[in-house]
Structure formats: structure tokens, C-alpha cells
Amino acid sequence: DTAVSQTPKYLVTQMGNDKSIKCEQNLGHDTMYWYKQDSKKFLKIMFSYNNKELIINETVPNRFSPKSPDKAHLNLHINSLELGDSAVYFCASSIRGANEQFFGPGTRLTVL
Amino acid sequence: QKEVEQDPGPLSVPEGAIVSLNCTYSNSAFQYFMWYRQYSRKGPELLMYTYSSGNKEDGRFTAQVDKSSKYISLFIRDSQPSDSATYLCAMMGGSNYKLTFGKGTLLTVNP
Fold it and tell me: Which residues partner with B25 through β-bridges?
């Protein structure tokens, strides 16, 4: 009965490759998010979708492209991976406007 | 100046100590103030939230907000080894409901 799940949990890849991370929530929430947490634990919003519509798009390289096929899913595709993309990527969900966001377990991406 | 400033620590205290964690912010639009706890290799989880100046208590935890000084605090009484985690302050304001996090403070409570 996992609330917010992400796959894969770990991802190790070479520079220049393209990879995707998937997120699913079964909480019935209408808003989903992608965050990046760097090695110093700084957690920063990347994107947010509400009912499949992009509502937050921070200053993120256009190599990162989110896709929301439905309210319960939000995927992140990254093209031409760079060393600086190494981080933990968290998916989260909430009811829009609510204070509490529910986070997934994270995907630890390592770019070699 | 960053929107949210938080001392990253690390902070190490003996079991039973009172812990004080703090954040300052610069954006007057922030209306909601939250503390998230993140255990190692896990996602953050909401610990407490408040939307007004003053104190809010929940068990051993007290959240304090001073909007005039743009300063928020989290106090942990009778700290336990199970409280060892990274504590992130987070703030929300504006129409897009975006959460802005502090850098997190790593707390270790030693038995």
C-alpha cells in the first residue's frame, strides 16, 4: 500500500545517456512534483503538475522533460546526462494548495 | 540573499537535551511554515506546520514563528536517538503553492 513510489531506486549511467524515472501515487492527489536533492541535502523544486497541467517549471535545463500521462503518474526524462545531474530525485504529491506534500523514497542517480 | 537560510550543522546532542533548530527567510509572501524530517536514505516527511506567528506544540515538538523578524524555530524536548535525522524548514506563499526549502540541519542524538 505504498503511497508514492518511484522506479528505479538506483540508477548508474554514463555521461551522454538518456534515462527516465517513473513516479506513481495512489493517494488520489491532484498535484505531483519533482525535486532534486544535491549532495549537500539541498532540496529544490524542479516541476509541478496539477491535473496533468504544468504549473511550476523552475530554471531547469531543457534536457529535463517531465510528462504526466494522468493524475497518478509523473515521469521525468533526462537527455544527454551530465556529471552535475548526479543527485537524488524525489517525487512528491499533494492536494493542490495543501501544506503537506508526500514524498517518494527517491531515485539516486549517479552519472559516471 | 537566499530566500530561506538554515544552518546545516551538523548538530550533535546527548539524549534528553533540548534541541533548537532555526530558519530565517526574506520573502514576505511566505504564509505557511513547515518542518520536514528526513531520515537517512528516505524521503522527507511533514513533522509540523503553522501559518501564523506564535507557538504550536505537538508532543515533544514545538514550532515557533515570528513573522515580524522573519524567523522560525523548531524545538525538540527530551530528544531521543530516534530523532536523529535531517530537519528541513519549508515555506509556502503565492498562487503557485510552491514549497521553498532550507538546506536542512543534520541532527544526531547520542544515547
Answer: B4
For residues A100-111, one letter each, b for 16 or more C-beta atoms within 10 angstroms of the residue's C-beta and e for the rest, the string is ebbbbbbbbbeb
Measured in degrees and rounded to the nearest 5, phi and psi for residue A84 equal -70, -10
Sign of CA dihedral A89, B47, B100, A96: positive
**Cell 530566500 appears where?**
B3
**A35-71 pLDDT, tens digit each:** 999 988 889 999 999 888 888 888 789 999 999 999 9
Identify the three-state secondary structure at position B83. Answer: helix
Residue with cell string 499533494:
A94
Note whether B31 contacts A: Cβ–Cβ < 8 A: no
Judge whether A106 is closer than 8 Å to chain B, CB to CB: yes
B2–A contact, CB cutoff 8 A: no
Q: What is the per-residue pLDDT across A96-105, written as a single tens digit (0 to 9) for each?
A: 878 789 999 9
Tell me the C-alpha to C-alpha distance, in Å, between residue B13 and each of A41, B60, B79, B104.
21, 16, 8, 17
Cβ contact, residue pair B46, A40, below 8 Å: no
For residues B93 and B83, is the Cβ–Cβ distance under 8 A? no
Distances (CA, A) of A60 to A45, A78, B22, B64: 10, 11, 29, 33
Spatial separation of the C-alpha atoms in residues B38 and B58, rounded to whole Å: 18
